[in-house]
Amino acid sequence: MRHIIYLPGLGDHYDPLRKLALKRWRDKNTRVTLVPMHWSDKRETYEQKYQRVADVIEATSGKNVTLVGESAGGAMAMFVFSRHQTKIRRVVTICGYNHGAADIHRYHKYKHPAFYLLMPHVDEAVKNFSQEARSHITTIYSKKDRTVSPDHSQIKDAREIILRSSGHLGNIARALIKKLPINIA
């Protein structure tokens, strides 16, 4: 049984739509869990958000776990993977902000403080991934994304899927609807 754990980006209000799209990802051999990040909850730390994901991983039997991180959820996916590499088979990010703490706009320090404070730890984790660990990562991104630049999505030695369409939300929606991560072996 494969278990996909989906980590959403900053648009918390889109979670009902994400859940609807993720229903299509399920089949008799695939379980899918959306772990809400509540990025706009200023009282919750990134460690508390991480712990929600870690609890789902611990409750999962077997080692066939795929983390899918969308946008800011890509950062959390990298952080979680750095702490649970032996339990996670694959990490897929969709337009993921996978590293680049120095480039995060100060707006996020006040609007999404957990994301802002998480990013230096993500940079450190990504920097320390072995080539073997990087081989378990797939980044899906667009060179025409004006919200998350390709430089922040790309990870050296990771598998890449480059989307030809422009935009951020549209590419995430297409990936959700087309089930792109599920088709990755």
Mean pLDDT: 93
Question: How many helices does DSSP assign?
Answer: 8
Overall radius of gyration: 15 Å
| Overall 3D form | globular
* Proportion in helices: 25-40%
**Strand order in the sheet with the most strands:** 2-1-3-4-5-6
- Quote the distance from N terminus to C terminus: 14 Å
The residue ranges in which pLDDT falls below 50 over 5 or more consecutive positions are: none
Note the main sheet.
6 strands, parallel
Order of helices and strands: EHEHEHEHHHEHEH
| Beta-strand content estimate | 15-25%
**How many strands?**
6
Helices and strands: which structural class? alpha/beta
What report would you give on this structure?
The mean pLDDT is 93. The radius of gyration is 15 Å and the shape is globular. It has eight helices and six strands; from the N terminus they run βαβαβαβαααβαβα. The protein has a six-stranded parallel sheet, sandwiched between helices. It has 185 residues and is an alpha/beta fold. The longest helix is centred in the middle third of the chain and has 16 residues, at 113-128.
Compile the SSE list and pairings.
Elements: E1 2-7, H1 15-22, E2 30-34, H2 46-59, E3 65-70, H3 72-83, E4 90-94, H4 107-111, H5 113-128, H6 131-134, E5 137-142, H7 150-153, E6 159-163, H8 169-178
